[in-house]
Every structure is written in C-alpha cells, then in structure tokens.
phosphoenolpyruvate--glycerone phosphotransferase (Streptomyces monashensis), 660 residues
Amino acid sequence: MRMLINVPETVVADALRGMAAAYPDLTVDVENRVIVRRDAPVAGQVALVSGGGSGHEPLHGGFVGHGMLSAACPGEVFTSPVPDQMARAAAAVDSGAGVLFVVKNYTGDVLNFDMAAELAEDEGIQVAKVLVNDDVAVTDSLYTAGRRGTGATLFVEKIAGAAAAEGEPLERVEAIGRRVNENSRSFGVALSACTTPAKGTPTFDLPDGELELGVGIHGEPGRERRPMMTSGEIADFAVNAILEDMPPHNPVLLLVNGMGATPLLELYGFHAEVQRVLAERGVAVARTLVGNYVTSLDMAGASVTLCQIDEELLRLWDAPVRTPALRWGM
Amino acid sequence: MRMLINVPETVVADALRGMAAAYPDLTVDVENRVIVRRDAPVAGQVALVSGGGSGHEPLHGGFVGHGMLSAACPGEVFTSPVPDQMARAAAAVDSGAGVLFVVKNYTGDVLNFDMAAELAEDEGIQVAKVLVNDDVAVTDSLYTAGRRGTGATLFVEKIAGAAAAEGEPLERVEAIGRRVNENSRSFGVALSACTTPAKGTPTFDLPDGELELGVGIHGEPGRERRPMMTSGEIADFAVNAILEDMPPHNPVLLLVNGMGATPLLELYGFHAEVQRVLAERGVAVARTLVGNYVTSLDMAGASVTLCQIDEELLRLWDAPVRTPALRWGM
C-alpha cells in the first residue's frame, strides 16, 4: 500500500483539516464534514450545494467559492454523504433565496439528497435539484440506475453557480443547471485501477497492457477491455462515443480530465488528440479546460466531457469564479 | 506500460500541441520547443526565462504568464533543454531591459544555461542568472554537484516574476530571486518510482511497503529507505530536516507539493500534518499552497518547501499572477 496517510479511518477528516488550513476563504466543519464559503449566506443569491463520496478531489470541496458552489458535503471515500450533512449545509448557506442541490447520479447520492431536501424543506428552505448523468459509457452500472454523473458536474456547478451569483431566482438557476447537463456527455478510460484506503488493494484488476474503455470514476467496469491503445486511438474512441450519443450542433466546452495518476505531460498530449478529432468532426471548441478535476484517487486514465453551449451558457462559463481549483476573472 | 501516449518519441511535442490548444495566452513554438507569453516582449520589463527537463509539469510551461515567467524551454523528459532553445526564448522576450535565467541546479541545465547566456549576450541581450538549489536531502547526487533544485523554483519564479512585472531593473530582480532561493529549503519523499516513456519501466526499484526519504524529482536516491511511515511521521521527518538546515527566524511560505500520482485527498491530509509540525516548532505560516506543481511524472509522494519571508517578499508573493497553473488577483 503506497499511501500518504495516517490510518484509513481518518483519511477524510485529515484531508478536511488540511483544506481548512489551505483555504482561508472556506469554513470547514471537520466534525460534521461540511465545507462552506466563508461569506455564506450571500444575501439575495440562490445557494448551490453539492457533495458525494470523497476520492474525486478537487470535486466538490475545491469548487466552493464565489461563482460556483456555496457548500460541499464530502462522504467517506466513494461513499455518499448522509442527509443530515446535506441539510446542515443547506441551512448554513440559504439566504432565503433557496438552495439548488447538484446531485451526481449514483443510487446512494440520489436517495440521500432526496431525504436531505425533505429535511431542509421541513426547516422552511426552498430546495430544487439538478441530477447530473452525463456518462455515455453504460446505461446502468454497479452504483447507478441510468447513466453515471462524472465530468459534467464541473460544468453544471460552474455555470449554474454563475447564474446564482448574478442573482437569478431558484427556478432559473435550476433550469440552467438542467440545460447544461442535458447538453453534456462524457466518456472515460482507465489505464490502471485505483486503491481505496480502506481496502488497500486495487478496486479491480486491470492487467498491464490493457485498458478499460468507458470506466466510471470509482473504477466501475466500462464498455469493454482492450489491449493498450495509443493516445490518438483513445481520443477517437472517446469523442466518437460522445458524438454518437449527442450529434454536434453547437460549439462546445471541452474538459479533458485526468483521473489522478496520469501525468499532466500525458494529459496535454491527449488533449491535442481530442482537439484533432473534434476538428475532423467539424466541432468548434469554444473553451477548453485540461487538468485533474474529477479524479478517482490514484487511477491512471482520463475522461473527455463535451457541453454543447449557446451564448448564455458561454457567458456564464466565462463569468468570474474564485474557488481553490477553478479561478478566473477576480 | 500504462501510458496515455502515442509513441515515446513524440511525447513532448504532443504535449506542446496540447498546451497550445489549451492556453490562448501563450504562444507555443512546438518545433523549437519554446513557450512564450503571447504579449512578450513587455516594454520596460525584465523578462524571466526558465526551463528544464519535461516530466515536472506544470513546471515550467504552466508558470508562463503575467507576473511569473516570460518564457519556458522544455527539454526531453528528465533531460536539459539545449542552449539554442534558451537563447531563442531570451531573444523572443527581451524588451531591452534584460533577461533573468532561473536555473535548477542540475549539471546539464547549468552548463546549457551558461552557454545560452553567452549566445544571448553575443546578440546584445543583458543576462543574469539565479541558481535554485533548495533540496536539503543530499549534497551531491546523480545529476548534480551541490544541492538539487526542486520546489523553491516555484517561489523564485513567482516572486522574481512579480518584481519584474513592477518594473524593477535586472539587478534587483536577480537579487530578489537569489534572496528567495537562499531562504528556501525543500525535502521530498517517494512512495513509488516513476516511469519515463522512453524507458517504459520504473526508474528505480522501490518495494511496496517502503519509502524513499529525501528523493529527488527524477527519482534520484535520497537519504535513506525505510519501511512505510504514516503521513504524520513523514511530515515530522521532512519539516525537521528542513529546519535543521535553516533554523526558523521568519514566517514562511509553505508549499506542500504532490509528486504526480498522490491523490489530492492524501495531499490535503499530509498538509494538515505539516501544519501541525510547523505549529509545534513555533513557525508561523504566512501563505500556503497545496497541489501538484513540481512533479515527477507518475511518482507517488510529496515534498515540502519552506521559504522564510520578509515583508517585501510576501507582498511580491501576493501580487497578481496569471498563468495556467498559478492565478490570482486578476
């Protein structure tokens, strides 16, 4: 086990202590596992709350701040946070304008955010939800009914967060979040498995020289396993899988996301290949983001997410954001 | 071999194509391997040029932009760039105010930057140099006479870059860069080796359950090898090694840097332990940066860098910066 940890039991709490010390703009409640913008609640603004299993950092805690999330609830590694956590986060950030839950489509998350919505509504908080289910690789999987939520979560949180920062009402922020999700698709590949601290051994067995096409962000099985392919071949496969599901009609936001252990040097090269395929398919790239944003612990691999955008979504994407992991315009 | 590449021979060129497509603020000369600020040369400002072997991304190309580097020269993986590259970069960014070379202390880099300085001076460009040699782990190593240059490179580039952006003359920018290096120390640990594309197998053999204390950023051997330690024990060892070499006298800038394959979740937890040790030793942390900044391909592990700062260096650290990997205040 090659882990930089104390003991598996304290990994999430240790990480939260580390985030608290790293980011003075955040308030981190280590005991209750809630990460909140220090200036929350922000008067007159809808608040965005997301969360999910830990192990995908910087998602979600690294996206808390002006123009994106108001709060994040980290669960145990690859395990949904609990309803109490989410309701507590909602109460901490609600200004009276309501709260939007951004929920990745995994059975545990969906159930728990539903229960949290009831708890929050009992406290008089208006709640709406956006479900993120962008992964075209498989329909049902180990942890989901329907498609998994992966890279598009970043797009939903950034763009809906910008709408909230502009003072849009809850139903508008929700509608914008849904529009982003509906126009987003992802496809991921794994070159290695990942290892959770609790288990201490790889979550699945991927022999050297093979890759998993269509893998999920917890190492869930994908579409198929093949002998190793080149970066260019993987880009062809991933982009074509996305465009087959969502024919190109608009310019796109492009996210080329590293799963955690793939060097940035390789990720840049993969990005070049993804750009080549998009150019060949006549898809214009309006904006591009390359880096480790929605990770799977120490998994090697990458994912591609496309969001077909219109003028309004692009303007909201470009709007100022100030979070640990995404920052521009301020 | 679990790499997201086409063929080993094109890894650096592919990555540069990918950077060119990702960052409209940069001009990337893929053929000559020079990454330049799009708005260079900037009238009246000293230009900073750095470079070194590839495989440490985002260093150096990700630090090109306002308030930091004017240009970067990536070599082959773990191999110095050549003098022609560096001289070409200097010519591209010199406004007439002179160029500061920021050089990590590795034999190849030092020789080649020396030759590049001669080439540039022959063209009438005024050149100064700052050598970065912050790694306290070992005195001489596989690639160096004297100490290795590692994490402090980021501090030197950011702070000297801010001085340049304020219009300071070359000798002042150089003096500030030297002051940052003189007050900085680093210590790194590896939990796994890294694998270069050309070799395809790990650069050294580190059995599961052991770690290398004092490792270099190319996997050079460190001080000693031990059975796996906890995050807290590693933090104690690293911080004490640094403070033994440089007794605390000022508040510090703290960089907790991931080597590439260590999940951010673990890095945050390690950061918490480093903060604990610093508090126990009575060292005040003025600013902290946690993330993958000076990496070693797919190596698992982390490094700690401290820079003991004064008011001027802190002000320059806080000054606006706008690069792919470091961005604030604009």
Observations:
- Helices of chain B lie at 11-22, 83-93, 107-122, 152-165, 170-182, 231-245, 264-280, 311-318.
- Chain B has eight helices and 14 strands.
- Chain B has a mean pLDDT of 96.
- Chain B touches chain A through 61 residues (CB under 8 Å).
